[in-house]
Amino acid sequence: MRTVFIEKREEIEKLIRSCKICYVAMSDGDVPYVLPMNFALDDNVIILHSAQSGRMWETIQRNPKVCINWTVGDGLAWQDERVGCSYRMISSSALVEGKAEFIDDYSEKERCMHLIMAQYSEREFKFNAPAINNVGVIKVHIDKLSAKEFGAKAIKKVKK
């Protein structure tokens, strides 16, 4: 069983778009912090939303560098079921490293919220002014994008 890099951008984007949650990691000095979040992918930007205050908001204000993870798959494979070190998860994972930016412009916040909702539903949504004014929108500009497939070409049993 091998780990294989996913090289094609369209395959990485397909993996990301297949997820409902991403995990956003940040650091406040030497204290790491990670949160599950909803997201949208917009070309070379990840869009997140939150309250405009709280631990995450304050952490990103102090250090805008973040890492985001998406993972799909939870199959289990092994080469020899009696050998623990031969077990492997069958999954795919994408990582983004980038710098977060808070969005204040009303029109851009509204556009971003439409993109986030499009990740989860094909319905059309309307947002009123208080909703847009009170939501925090964060763009993470992608500096580095990578993805891997784990347990590629599993050769023995697969158990769910």
Explain how this protein is built.
- A hairpin with a 2-residue loop joins strand 4 (40-42) and strand 5.
- The protein has a single domain, classed as Roll (Pnp Oxidase, Chain A), CATH 2.30.110.10.
- With 160 residues, the chain is α+β, with helices and mostly antiparallel strands.
- The model is unreliable at 154-158 (pLDDT under 50).
- Strands 1, 2, 3, 4, 5, 6, 7, 8 and 9 form a 9-stranded antiparallel β-sheet that branches.
- The radius of gyration is 18 Å and the shape is globular.
- The protein has helices at 9-17, 55-62, 106-120, 129-134, and strands at residues 2-5, 22-28, 31-37, 40-42, 45-50, 65-78, 87-103, 136-152, 158-159.
- It contains 4 helices and 9 strands; from the N terminus they run βαββββαββααββ.
